[in-house]
Amino acid sequence: MLKLAAAIVCILTVAEGCVYKGSECAPYTVVEQHADYEIRSYPSLTWVTTTEEDRLARVARYKAFMRLFGYISGKNDRTQIINMTVPVRMKMTPHDEEMIHEMSFMVPAEFAQDPPVPNDKLITVSKEGPKMYAV
């Protein structure tokens, strides 16, 4: 009975949205459960993304984060304040002797269909189709 109650709570959490430490997170459904990881299915999500190139990863991450933070702090066409979400997605790609650091913030559900346009030309908005991840 306790397992059934826990399963219902998990389903409701995923169906109604996800919150982690007070921040909206990407909703997902667990497809497979394994000892050390799980396979998750995520719906279509909208992301704001920027890239930064630097030999020092911490410098590139800081610059990228602050640029995206500016966007959610009102540096957009509506001067709209947007709540922080999780996860913050990072992708690193080698380029010559440096790394290209791509950072993305998930756009909250309330803005996903019509997100504010970034004032900074180094920020792009994109919608991605459903995806599966091992977490």
UniProtKB/TrEMBL annotation:
Gene3D superfamilies: Regulatory factor, effector binding domain (3.20.80.10). Pfam families: SOUL (PF04832). Keywords: Signal. It comes from the Eukaryota. Residues 1-17 form the signal peptide. The keyword Signal applies. Belongs to the HEBP family. PANTHER family: HEME-BINDING PROTEIN 2 (PTHR11220:SF1), HEME-BINDING PROTEIN-RELATED (PTHR11220). This is Heme-binding protein 1.
